[in-house]
């Protein structure tokens, strides 16, 4: 019986065997030996060894595997052909830089993650199997990218080719770096780092650089890969690119542009600010620029973005929906205006701006009180104004919330604005459950955590409702008169009402219309499920994640290449009609979607939320500790 034990208990097995082999024991010692042996067996069966000699944590094991020894792909770091940090700005800042708060200026943050106990062998086995399935699918997608679109921005998963859409700096490659690291793919990671070493951030496939995408995908990807692997070339490349993004602030008011004009940077002409931009564009630069300042010790990146946050801070209570910012703002002219827009949403256009308020306070260890109030005010206002309870047939077992879109019509006559909440939502809003859950822990506010759970369940519900198991990109539901769950009697399913409101035939009950039927490999729902799992430790979230993974793996797999492909219509029943796909694999498929699935089924010390802050592209930044 002992023969097969040693393998499972590792080093302990050989120690034990040695003791058994005592030569010619006497009667007494033989009996003792039997008793001793028996005790060891019992100890083993109740898992005693694992308690006395804890297993090496996954994160430590992985660090050894990924970071020790020589790289498997030697490279020579090539500097970008222009050093953007040396180009003279047209509008140098006249004010002294805003200093970067140090970790010791912060406060002790509460524990974010649930205190996970031991996992039963059965659960462990199930979890490992699921994790392997996610890793397998990721390897297939990465191999397809490598084979058909190496160093291109994106893979075309049906036609087995590549395309450039974000300056041609290999967006998918940079975006995938930390996923490869986290999944322990050493060979693939080293090869990708060698490719990064040659990127020229002065040679773009298009003359305009989108500041938002470049920041979250490229800069975020480089910083996280550096934080995990400590390969110097990654920080060097991050700094080269960070200097280009910093040049996007070369405007008279030092507010950033949405699109950086490369030629104007080269010739020190200054940047032309757009009359109107979505608030997420300037609102989603802060985590990356702050981390770059923390890592390089150069405060200029943080200083640039701290000015934008000051503008948000002084304007937050003056908007048409105080606490929230309109989707469209204007940073143009001498007086930037972030208050007069009339549309409010947590979806596309605004989403990650909100996400970054609590996350930046976490990255700064709570050292910046204005960020904490930006976070509290938006969380309170969104709860009160943007969420609705949908009318669904099984509402008693589904206490869920959906995030809608508010429109304010200023009424100058009686000075009371009219408010309209449209029950239209989109997949992009599904990140918000995770943000509430994180804020709930970060600010020790139970209410936020509860709201986060309801919002996340709402997204899980929308996935489950469609025959593919996937949520469409954009849809409308039938709202209940009240969001208060204690009034469930007031939200009884009304078939007549639903039939009268329904705009398209054949939709699941509760859904009024689906205005965009695609699933484009988006991560936001599994992102929130990941936060809920790591924060509460409740098994419901792992189960929800698995159902979603099975649906995603089935719906999005492109047999042409092995890559992931957008699904054209998630409302079509795959048992009756073949799933149709689009020739598109966005870089966030490997960077975010597959990474979040993998992390849900990994030991929770891997990318612990107590150590890392994840940017809006799922890139983990190490938080400096006081
Ligand atoms: C993962 O892939 C390997 C090799 O292709 C295969 O043997 C294994 O069964 C797969 N595991 C899962 C869980 O899909
Ligand atoms: C810029 O990149 C393109 C595409 O990778 C390449 O063909 C070209 O030679 C590069 N130009 C310079 C000046 O390096
Ligand atoms: C904004 O409004 C909130 C809620 O009414 C309030 O708590 C906060 O102090 C206000 N902030 C400012 C800067 O006026
Ligand atoms: C259901 O909705 C219809 C149409 O709006 C309405 O006439 C009816 O009174 C509702 N039934 C109940 C039980 O609320």
Automatic annotation (TrEMBL):
<dbReference type="GO" id="GO:0016020">
    <property type="term" value="C:membrane"/>
</dbReference>
<keyword id="KW-0378">Hydrolase</keyword>
<feature type="transmembrane region" description="Helical">
    <location>
        <begin position="32"/>
        <end position="49"/>
    </location>
</feature>
<comment type="similarity">
    <text>Belongs to the glycosyl hydrolase 47 family.</text>
</comment>
<comment type="pathway">
    <text>Protein modification; protein glycosylation.</text>
</comment>
<keyword id="KW-0479">Metal-binding</keyword>
<dbReference type="GO" id="GO:0005783">
    <property type="term" value="C:endoplasmic reticulum"/>
</dbReference>
<keyword id="KW-0812">Transmembrane</keyword>
<dbReference type="InterPro" id="IPR001382">
    <property type="entry name" value="Glyco_hydro_47"/>
</dbReference>
<dbReference type="Pfam" id="PF01532">
    <property type="entry name" value="Glyco_hydro_47"/>
</dbReference>
<keyword id="KW-0472">Membrane</keyword>
<keyword id="KW-0106">Calcium</keyword>
<feature type="active site">
    <location>
        <position position="351"/>
    </location>
</feature>
<keyword id="KW-0326">Glycosidase</keyword>
<keyword id="KW-1133">Transmembrane helix</keyword>
<dbReference type="InterPro" id="IPR050749">
    <property type="entry name" value="Glycosyl_Hydrolase_47"/>
</dbReference>
<feature type="active site">
    <location>
        <position position="524"/>
    </location>
</feature>
<dbReference type="GO" id="GO:0004571">
    <property type="term" value="F:mannosyl-oligosaccharide 1,2-alpha-mannosidase activity"/>
</dbReference>
<feature type="disulfide bond">
    <location>
        <begin position="430"/>
        <end position="459"/>
    </location>
</feature>
<feature type="active site" description="Proton donor">
    <location>
        <position position="213"/>
    </location>
</feature>
<feature type="active site" description="Proton donor">
    <location>
        <position position="473"/>
    </location>
</feature>
<feature type="binding site">
    <location>
        <position position="616"/>
    </location>
    <ligand>
        <name>Ca(2+)</name>
    </ligand>
</feature>
<keyword id="KW-1015">Disulfide bond</keyword>
<dbReference type="GO" id="GO:0036503">
    <property type="term" value="P:ERAD pathway"/>
</dbReference>
<dbReference type="GO" id="GO:0005975">
    <property type="term" value="P:carbohydrate metabolic process"/>
</dbReference>
<protein>
    <recommendedName>
        <fullName>alpha-1,2-Mannosidase</fullName>
        <ecNumber>3.2.1.-</ecNumber>
    </recommendedName>
</protein>
<dbReference type="InterPro" id="IPR036026">
    <property type="entry name" value="Seven-hairpin_glycosidases"/>
</dbReference>
<dbReference type="GO" id="GO:0005509">
    <property type="term" value="F:calcium ion binding"/>
</dbReference>
<dbReference type="InterPro" id="IPR012341">
    <property type="entry name" value="6hp_glycosidase-like_sf"/>
</dbReference>
């Amino acid at each position: 019986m002992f023969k097969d034990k040693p393998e499972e208990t590792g080093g302990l097995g050989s120690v034990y065997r040695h003791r058994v082999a005592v030569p010619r024991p006497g009667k007494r010692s033989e009996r003792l030996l039997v008793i001793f042996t028996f005790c060891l067996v019992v100890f083993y069966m109740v898992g005693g060894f694992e308690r006395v000699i804890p297993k090496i944590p996954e994160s430590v094991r992985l660090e050894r595997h990924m970071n020790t020894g020589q790289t498997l792909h030697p490279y020579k770091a090539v500097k970008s052909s222009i050093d953007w940090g040396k180009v003279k700005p047209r509008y140098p800042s006249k004010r002294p830089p805003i200093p970067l708060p140090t970790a010791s200026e912060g406060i002790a943050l509460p524990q974010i993650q649930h205190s996970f106990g031991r996992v039963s062998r059965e659960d462990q086995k199930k979890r490992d199997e699921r994790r392997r399935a996610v890793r397998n699918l990721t390897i297939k997608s990465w191999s397809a990218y490598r084979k058909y679109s190496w160093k291109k921005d994106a893979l075309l998963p049906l036609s087995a080719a590549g395309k450039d859409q974000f300056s041609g700096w290999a967006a998918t490659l940079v975006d995938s770096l930390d996923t490869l690291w986290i999944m322990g793919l050493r060979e693939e990671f080293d090869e990708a780092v060698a490719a990064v070493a040659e990127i020229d951030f002065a040679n773009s496939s298009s003359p305009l650089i989108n500041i938002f995408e470049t920041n979250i995908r490229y800069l975020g990807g480089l910083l996280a890969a550096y934080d995990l692997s400590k390969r110097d070339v990654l920080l060097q490349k991050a700094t080269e690119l960070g200097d280009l993004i910093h040049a996007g602030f070369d405007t008279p008011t030092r507010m950033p542009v949405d699109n950086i004009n490369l030629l104007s940077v080269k010739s020190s002409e200054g940047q032309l600010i757009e009359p109107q931009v979505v608030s997420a564009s300037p609102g989603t630069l802060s985590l990356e620029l702050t981390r770059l300042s923390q890592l390089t010790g150069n405060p200029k990146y943080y200083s640039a973005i701290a000015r934008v946050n000051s503008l948000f801070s002084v304007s937050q209570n003056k908007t048409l929906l105080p606490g929230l910012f309109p989707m469209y703002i204007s940073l143009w002219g001498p007086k930037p205006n972030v208050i007069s827009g009339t549309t409010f949403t947590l979806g596309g256009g605004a989403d990650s701006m909100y996400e970054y308020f609590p996350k930046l306070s976490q990255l700064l260890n709570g050292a910046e009180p204005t960020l904490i109030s930006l976070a509290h005010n938006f969380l309170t206002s969104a709860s009160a104004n943007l969420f609705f309870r949908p009318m669904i047939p099984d509402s008693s077992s589904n206490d869920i919330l959906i995030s809608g879109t508010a429109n304010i019509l200023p009424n100058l006559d009686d000075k009371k604005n009219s408010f309209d909440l449209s029950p239209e939502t989109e997949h992009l809003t599904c990140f918000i459950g995770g943000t509430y859950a994180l804020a709930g822990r970060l600010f020790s506010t139970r209410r936020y955590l509860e709201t986060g759970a309801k919002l996340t369940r709402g997204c899980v519900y929308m996935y489950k409702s469609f025959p593919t198991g996937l949520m469409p990109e954009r849809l409308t539901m039938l709202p209940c008169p009240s969001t208060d769950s204690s009034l469930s009697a007031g939200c009884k399913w009304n078939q007549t009402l639903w039939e009268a409101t329904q705009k398209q035939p054949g939709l699941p009950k509760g859904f009024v219309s689906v205005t965009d039927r695609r699933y484009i490999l988006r991560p936001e729902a599994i992102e929130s499920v990941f936060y809920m799992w790591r924060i509460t430790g409740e098994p419901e979230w792992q189960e929800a994640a698995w159902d979603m993974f099975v649906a995603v793996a089935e719906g999005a797999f492109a047999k042409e290449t092995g890559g992931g492909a957008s699904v054209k219509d998630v409302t079509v029943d795959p048992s009756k009609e073949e799933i149709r796909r689009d020739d598109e694999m966005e870089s966030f498929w490997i960077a975010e979607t597959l990474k979040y699935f993998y992390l849900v089924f990994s030991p929770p010390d891997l990318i612990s939320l107590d150590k890392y802050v994840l940017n809006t592209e799922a890139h983990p930044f190490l938080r400096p500790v006081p």
